[in-house]
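Lecture notes, unit on protein representations.

Consider one protein chain, 122 amino acids long.
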Amino acid sequence: VTLVESGGGLVQAGQSLNLSCVATGFPFSNSAMAWFRQAPGKEREFVAAISRGSFITHIADPVEGRCTISRDNSKGTVYLQMVNLKPEDTAVYYCNSAVRSGTTWRATQEYWGQGTQVTVSS
């Protein structure tokens, strides 16, 4: 399994970023995918998920209205578009295959990629 996230960077509050994650080594097109993030000193948290056919998306409350998740099964890639970024969005962002777990989603691959750093200055 490989998960390679990219697209992060240092931006000012109110700006946008587009993250990408290329996934290989498991049946991507048959897997729901999700983005998670981990801020310094905090546990990793769910951000957004998308069903395998893109029919269902779920966005976490802290980023509702500011994030859009999408995927391209032909490329094995999942995307996260973030607009109107806030300093509290600062974190390392990761993708993983996922399953619904109550009101949230949990990752299903034990392996995590290196993530992509998003830093939002005020």
